[in-house]
Amino acid sequence: MTAQPMANLALVPDIAARPDKAAPPLAALPLGASGADGRVELLGLTRAEIAAALMAAGEAEKGAKMRANQLWHWIYHRGQRDFAQMTTLAKDLRERLAQRFQVGRPLAARDLQSSDGTRKWLLRFQDGEEAESVHIPEEDRGALCVSSQVGCTLTCRFCHTGTMKLVRNLSPAEIVGQVMLARDALGEWPSPPDGRMLSNIVMMGMGEPLYNFEHVAKALKIVMDGEGIAISKRRITLSTAGVVPMIARCGAELGVNLAISLHAVRDDIRDVIVPLNRKYPIKDLLAACANYPGLSNARRITFEYVMLKGVNDTPADARELVRLLKGIPAKVNLIPFNAWPDAPYECSSDKAIRDFSEIVFNAGYSSPVRTPRGRDIMAACGQLKSASVKRSKADILREQAAKEAQLAQAQAAGLSA
Ligand code: SAH
């Protein structure tokens, strides 16, 4: 397949008629900003950007908006990747589109199924970097746990993803591509109005979504669009370790449900297990939560709390949690710690978790203990890590120390400024 630079396309009106320019098989198309053969990736673009791409490729300005809407319908409502099958478009247009554009998917390098039905995909992107997404089925619905970054910069002490060396933001196409891939696998095209096994999205995979907000927001707006994937903001939850300055924007721009990875009720402990706390301490975090738009008893912030033996799991911690949450419409998810190789913590005892839950529950907050899902395939909370970036423990400790020194320096600079 010879590459056809975009700029030349408008000058070659008969390109579709040339047999050597036939579209490659769909499975061979990797997801990317532009395909290896110069085709422009449509996934992850807004409608306006699709219209602009059509015009840049020589399509008439008149009707570009309507064509973009038609493409949107095929791509996001029908899950169609083959332009030839987009039968509401004129045949010659379909052929031209196939020459110039592609609708890709992330490559599923591995596809693991847990004994409990949880399914984990290891995704490989065009540059070879990897991230994971996890589908967690319930009886009559299911959530997809979506990654926002390759790796994560936060280095939370109890989280496996934090031990990855490489970090980069995922593009909107790579984020929305995770949803498309899961939909393909579940056979949920065209978008079913109800009874979906992919009914909810949780931005709880690898990465800190509020450190990649622009791309996450763009992807989620595509996911929420009523004429496409159509998963409403009420069924989407974004989880953050507490990037305080971005919380208001997340609420205003997306209005999705918010989850906070709290995990400790005292700054001295949270500073250690969630190092981001040194930048944005508990008080500031909770103030941002209290101001999150649209909160009510029916729409609460979820506080995630991983149960770590001897670290954060006493009845006194539970009572302090209740005190801190006062005035915030909240629910608490207690997550039994999921172990990973060389993890420096242990899970709290069943009794400690039960007692903790009871105190929070008796204070009027829902406080379910999360049943770990997909532990056997390392798909449970905090277990995600792509193998291409394994490091030695010594490296991890060295880098941790360097990051801490950096953080301290930044803080000192901030204080003296
Ligand atoms: N960076 C975001 C998104 C990741 S969500 C955030 O921190 O919220 C992943 C969730 O799993 C977070 O609540 C995280 O704290 C939790 N988690 C991480 N490691 C875990 C582990 N080993 N056991 C249980 N939960 C863990």
Mind explaining what this structure looks like?
The chain has 417 residues and is an alpha/beta fold. The chain folds into 2 domains: 32-103, DNA polymerase, domain 1 (Orthogonal Bundle), CATH 1.10.150.530; 107-377, TIM Barrel (Alpha-Beta Barrel). Helices cover 33% and strands 15% of the residues. The strands form 3 sheets. Strands 3-4-5-6-9-10-11-12-13 form a 9-stranded mixed sheet, with helices on one face. Helix 5 (172-186) packs parallel to helix 6 and helix 10 (315-325) runs parallel beside helix 11 (350-362). The model is unreliable at 1-24 (pLDDT under 50). S-adenosyl-L-homocysteine (SAH) is lined by residues 156, 158-159, 204, 208, 239-241, 261, 304, 306, 335, 337-338, 381-382.
Briefly note the structural class of the backbone.
alpha/beta
CATH fold description of the largest domain: TIM Barrel
Largest sheet: 9 strands, mixed
Cα gyration radius (Å): 23 Å
CATH architecture of the largest domain: Alpha-Beta Barrel
How widely separated are the two ends?
A: 57 Å
Proportion in helices: 25-40%
Give the number of helices.
12
Strand content: 5-15%
* Shape descriptor: elongated
Strand order of the largest sheet: 3-4-5-6-9-10-11-12-13
CATH class of the largest domain: Alpha Beta
Ligands and ions found: S-adenosyl-L-homocysteine
pLDDT averaged over residues: 87
* Poorly predicted sequence stretches spanning 5 or more consecutive residues: 1-24
How many beta strands in the DSSP annotation?
A: 13
- What name goes with the CATH superfamily of the largest domain? Aldolase class I
Number of domains: 2
Taken in chain order, the helices and strands follow as HEHHHEEEEEEEHEHEHEHHEHEHH
